[in-house]
Each structure stands twice: as C-alpha cells, then as structure tokens.
Task: inverse folding
C-alpha cells in the first residue's frame, strides 16, 4: 500500500498506538518507512526482533537500548542501528523519549495495525 502523496505536514500523519505508552506517526514508500516514536516515561518496548533493519536518532528525552548483548543509555542527538533479526528492547527513562526511526523494508504490520509480536 503506497501513499498517494509526496509531502506531509505534521497534522497529516496519524498518531497510532503500537502498544500502551508507545505511539507512532508513520510515513512510508515502497521500500522504506520512517516514524516519529513517542514513548511515555518509564515505558518499555518489550524484547522483540524482526527481519527489518532499523536505524534512528533520539530527538528528546532518554531511553535504555538493549540490542543483542549490548546496552546503552541514549539521549538527544544519539543514534542507533539495529540489524535485522537481532533481539532488542527499549526502556524510556522518567522523562520519556521521542525518536526518529527508519526501517527497511517497510513494517507491513504497522500499516495494518497488526503488531502481533508485542502480544
């Protein structure tokens, strides 16, 4: 499902809840997807993995990233790369976290609202 336009304002992009306390505003093309991810304070994105490559940047706040056997507290301006099929989880600090995430290929389950691996 390709988008029908090339340009978006912040108000054009639907904010959807991926799981309690984790919200995404997503845009995508044929092979790449981008999202602004808002994680409420003290909220965890549970351990999961997917075949998609993921890269991102923390825009505000802080979060602990656990990727494979590594862990690091990331804050505004920090970047990350998560290869496909590597287990990872994220825990926002008491300030919460806003990140820019990019995936390739696109996350079909996010478009269909069927984020089954979080259940």
Result:
């Amino acid at each position: 499902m390709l988008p029908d336009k090339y340009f978006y304002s912040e108000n054009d992009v639907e904010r959807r809840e991926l799981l309690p306390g984790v919200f995404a505003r997503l845009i995508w093309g044929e092979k790449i997807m981008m999202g602004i991810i808002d994680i409420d304070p003290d909220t965890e994105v549970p351990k999961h993995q997917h075949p998609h490559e993921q890269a991102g940047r923390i825009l505000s706040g802080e979060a602990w990233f656990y990727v494979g056997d590594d862990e690091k507290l990331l804050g505004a301006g920090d970047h990350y790369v998560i290869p496909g099929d590597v287990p990872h989880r994220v825990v926002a600090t008491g300030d919460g976290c806003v990140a820019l995430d990019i995936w390739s290929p696109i996350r079909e389950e996010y478009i269909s609202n069927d984020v089954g691996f979080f259940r």
In short: The helical segments are 108-112. The radius of gyration is 14 Å. The beta strands are 15-19, 22-28, 33-39, 44-48, 53-67, 70-75, 79-82, 88-104. The mean pLDDT is 92.
